[in-house]
Specification:
Elements lengths: L6 H29 L5 H36 L7 E10 L2 E11 L2 E8 L4 E4 L5 E5 L4 E5 L1 H17 L7 E7 L4 E4 L4 E2 L2 H9 L8 H11 L1
Parallel strand pairs: 3-7, 4-8, 7-9
Antiparallel strand pairs: 1-2, 2-3, 4-5, 5-6
Helix pairs in contact: 1-2
Protein name: NERD domain-containing protein
Length: 220
């Protein structure tokens, strides 16, 4: 499988570099402040350190997302021959953009996998705009990932239609690191074996090999 550049890896690298730049500028400001015996640089030191701290948080988030996607991609690469796995498929239709974490293409159609690497317990309902993540010492909230999945599938369908291609499109949200979930949708999974079984459960051939190759070329 030909791997695409992972935006989370790019973001992680960018924020790590920015974090180090913040440290360097803070250190240089300390040296200048001591050399010229001025306290004016204290404000700049604080700003540079705050900037570095923010970059560190963002780098941690990108690294977390990257770990979940790479772990899930490795899992999907264990599918039998005939399944093609694409990662980080970028879509844009009429100015609307989205990105599919992982996409499986086979003779039975396309399967979108929206990966979430959130830990703890996940609570949510299909109609809610936000879901809750309960960890040991904190509670966080996230946008409903099912809405994101629906948007990705819709844009994917429109993208293929613009090339004259029609194919069944299915999908799920996969929490790769959650301890438990309490949701009212069968399209949300946490178990790797269940994910593989779901993808392979659609076994009726509907696409010819030439159509599969065309879809892969379009999306790569």
């Amino acid at each position: 499988m030909e791997a695409m550049k992972n935006p989370n890896r790019i973001r992680y690298t960018k924020y790590i570099l920015l974090q180090r730049m913040g440290w360097i500028f803070a250190a240089l400001t300390v040296v200048v402040s001591i050399e010229y015996r001025t306290w004016f640089g204290v404000l700049w030191i604080a700003l540079f350190l705050f900037f570095s701290w923010r970059c560190r948080i963002r780098a941690k988030m990108a690294r977390c997302g990257l770990a979940g996607e790479e772990q899930t991609q490795s899992l999907l690469e264990g599918l039998p021959k005939g399944y093609t796995v694409l990662n980080n498929v970028e879509l844009e239709v009429g100015g609307r953009r989205s990105e599919i974490d992982l996409l499986v293409v086979s003779e039975s159609g396309l399967f979108v996998v929206e990966v979430k690497n959130h830990s703890g317990r996940i609570f949510g309902r299909k109609g809610q705009n936000t879901w809750r993540q309960d960890k040991r010492q904190e509670t966080k909230y996230m946008k409903n990932p099912l809405h994101q999945l629906e948007r990705e599938m819709r844009l994917l369908r429109q993208t293929l239609a613009s090339f004259g291609v029609a194919a069944p499109i299915r999908g799920c949200v996969f929490f790769s690191n959650a301890r438990a979930i309490d949701v009212d949708s069968g399209a949300v999974l946490t178990n790797g074996k269940a994910l593989l079984a779901r993808i392979q459960s659609f076994s009726e051939p509907v696409l010819r090999k030439s159509e599969i190759r065309k879809i892969v070329r379009i999306l790569r």
